[in-house]
Structure formats: C-alpha cells, structure tokens
Amino acid sequence: MVKEAGKGDDTAPSSGSPATSKGQNKLASVLSGSFSGAVVSVCVQPLDVIRTRLQADAAKGISRSTAGAFRVLVKEQGVRGLWRGTSPTVARLAIGVGVHFLALEFIKDAIYNFGSKGAGHSHGQLSAAQAFFSGGLSRGVAAAVTCPVTVVKTRMEYVGTSSVQYRGTVHALRTIAASEGASGLMRGFWPTVLSNAPFSALYYMLYSDLRRRFQKEGRSSTGVNFVSGTVAAITATLATQPADVIRTRMQLVAHNGVHISPLQTLKVATKTGGAKALLVGTVPRVMKRTVQTAVVWTLYEELVPRVTMLAEALNGSSKSS
Predict the structure, then answer these.
(1) Is pTM, for the whole model, over 0.85?
(2) Which residue, 46, 138, 192, 266, could crosslink 82 as a Cys pair with Cβ 3.0–4.6 Å?
(3) Residue 306 Ramachandran class (φ > 0 left, ψ -120 to 50 alpha, else beta)
(4) Of 26, 1, 225, nearest to 107 (Cα)?
C-alpha cells in the first residue's frame, strides 16, 4: 500500500471539523498546485519551445539536434524567443495543475470512501493500481479543460506555423475561434489527453511507490520527494512521447492544407520519418518534464501542509473575533 503525502504523518494538520478540514485541504491543493505550476513553468519554458520547434520542423522534413534547434532559435529570435508562449503556458499550468490536484483529491476521497466499506482498507493509503487510476483520471480531466490554451501555447511557441501574429493568449483564442471555429481550439484533443493522462497515471503510481520506499527515518522529505519525482518523470515521459509528437503535429501542421485525424497523423509521421519520428523532441521533453514535475510535486508537498495550517489559523481567528 502507498502512504499519501500529508496524510497520517506528523506534518498533516489535524485541527478543525472534518468538513472544514476537507474543504481547506482541497483549497490548499488548488492554491499550492497552481502556484507551483506557474512558477516552475516560466523556468522550463525554453525547453518547451525547443521541443515544439524540433517536432514542427521534423514534420516539414527538417532534422535538427536539440543543440542545433537551440542555436537556430537564438539566431532567428534572440534569447527572448526562448520564452515565446510563456503567457499561455503559465495560464495552462496554473489552471491545469490546480484542476489536476483538486480532481486528485476528490478521486482519492471517493476511493477512500468506497474502500472503507470493505475490510482492511486504511484511509490515507492507495494501492499501486489506485494511484495509477487516480493520477491518470485527474490529469485527463485537467488536460481536457485546458486543451484550448494548449493549442494557443503550441502555436505561439512556433512562429513558423502561419503568418498570423498573436498579440496574447486572449487574442489567440479569439482569432483561432473566429477562423477555425470551436473545433480549432480543440485540435489534437485526444493526443493531448493521451500524452497527459497516461503520463500522470504512470508518474503518480511510480512517485507514490518510490516515495514510500525511499522515505526512511532521518532522510530529508524534500530530497525524497525530488528523487522520487525525477525517476518517475523520466519513465513516464519516455512512455508517452509518441502521443506528444502526434499532438504537436495536429495542433500545428495541416497535411496538404487539411487537418487530419490522430491515426492519419501517426501514419504520415511514420511513413515520412519512420518510427524514430515518434521520438523527436524526446531530450528537451524529458529534461522539461523531469525538472518541472519533480519541482512542482516537491513544492506541492511542502506547500500543502503550510497553506492548510495558515487557512486553519485564519479560520480560527475569524471565529474567535
């Protein structure tokens, strides 16, 4: 069984009524997750821009290394070009991570409540299968909610996609909706979900299990969280790379002027570039996902108990006044 962070340990806040504590825990999850995601996303944005450039260029038959793409980007757009698409990235992660962690808390509560009816189930623990399910479903919900912003992010990161120059996230959303309809904002929906949900399912299962194994008396909880997150992120990223390539191609590239289905995109990619076409952009994506996910979860684990305690202190002060 997997012991959950902040549940059943000495750092978990215990004051307040059950209903109030649950509400405060969910609020703490949203705030902590959103803040962590927004801060870290700015730091790793250059890796996302390089990944998008590699995948988009590969779709046009241009092959470059990660270092080569970096040099071309800096030469063409300057250092600032490495942070193209930062505003939709921050918006997507702030919203997406918040939704992800909120959904995760609801799903875990549902699993606990269902499991408590059976014998031998201990509240605060998830099996590997339950961690896989809850991590994947919660991330799938977040990916679906933020798909329009993901489309904007991808297009703003790659200036070569069209002659349209977006002035910002809102302008891009309006422009795409006006020119392509609502379907344009949901371009690559299934590859988006399939590159995110399995990633988080694998990640959360591995992270929870590794965290339990590594957590020993006297070891730094921050170090345990980071190492567990790094190993889990590398494994999950490699497993979901093909779906990410298909997502980028669908959101950026029209085949002979027509946007095609995920299966057709897969066939075109493998026909023109072979199986290796599905691994384009792996290096920057592994670097980005590893750093981003490990740091986000480390910050999340550190922030949740502190935000919860602050909320309880404020709640106690308001009641006493």
Answers:
(1) no
(2) 46
(3) alpha
(4) 26
Residue 98's nearest CA partner among 54, 52, 41 is: 41
Residue 2: phi, psi to the nearest 5? -110, 125
Q: How far is CA 86 from the centre of its chain?
A: 15
Of 157, 124, 251, 152, residue with least CA distance to 195: 251
| Residue 211 identity (one-letter amino acid) | R
Please tell me the least confidently modeled range out of 147-156, 277-286, 302-311: 302-311
User: CB-based contacts of 207: which residues, under 8 Å, 6+ apart?
Assistant: 228, 229, 232, 297
What confidence tens digit (pLDDT) does each residue in 300-319 have? 778 878 888 887 787 776 66
